């Protein structure tokens, strides 16, 4: 049992199912987050107080208020006001986090969110809030990004942020996922091409499949053919409806589509950079 799988004894005894991640800011979490926000922005361990307007605001508090375009002190925003989580997201992104933390830190915020089983977590490099994803998946994605080339890694990192970030952008997430695959696959499959696309990579592997193989064995213990990668590339390309602006089937991508596209792209990038796809005769 992991920490987030834990359930109160009363629920375990009653045989009740586990609670899912907590959305929003329930009362039991609000006061602790409000305290964290006040201390982090004001650089103090004092109690949460309403300051006189314009008096005693730290530079970080003023910066976040400007980013939110509000005159309300961020820690006084209500739990049902979307700007309360906006303020926490903005604080992570725009506060001057120094090597020596004072009073509160991104790590202390993550500890609060984790203990509360919140649907939100602190993103890597303190870039803001993001959706809490299974830790095993998060670690696998981080390793794929680490091992990918710079350009593919940048696109995959952006795709993750636009998929699971506090303000997701499914169209951008899908586009960046596609670009990550193109950056990873192009140099391997079409090294002479200056602008390899998902389609041209797919077409080459489909038409010249006899020159390629997978490190995975087939039923005869021979290297498997590349049909599965061709199918994965085709699925990723066909699903990008947002790129066909003005076309009869053009539309915005959904969040579910962005999530599926991201993980499909991550798998493709990992297979490519780790050598699962290889030219015949290669090692």
Question: In this structure, how is the largest beta sheet organized?
Answer: 2 strands, antiparallel
Give the overall pLDDT as a whole number: 90
Tell me the total number of β-strands: 4
Radius of gyration based on Cα positions:
23 Å
The amount of helix comes to: 40-55%
Give the termini distance in whole angstroms.
40 Å
Q: What is the overall number of helices?
A: 11
Order of helices and strands: HHHHHEEHHHHEHHE
What's the CATH architecture of the largest domain? Up-down Bundle
For this structure, what is the CATH homologous superfamily of the largest domain?
Nucleotidyltransferases  domain 2
Domain unit count: 2
CATH topology of the largest domain: Four Helix Bundle (Hemerythrin (Met), subunit A)
Poorly predicted ranges = none
Characterize the overall form: elongated
- Indicate the structural class: mainly alpha
Task: Output the CATH class name of the largest domain.
Answer: Mainly Alpha
Strand share of the residues?
A: under 5%
What does this structure look like?
The protein has 283 residues and is mainly alpha-helical. The protein folds into 2 domains: 129 residues, no CATH class; 145 residues, Nucleotidyltransferases  domain 2 (Four Helix Bundle (Hemerythrin (Met), subunit A), Up-down Bundle). The chain has 11 helices and 4 strands; from the N terminus they run αααααββααααβααβ. The strands form 2 sheets. It has a two-stranded antiparallel sheet. Strands 3-4 form a two-stranded antiparallel ribbon. The longest helix has 20 residues. It is elongated, with a radius of gyration of 23 Å. The mean pLDDT is 90.
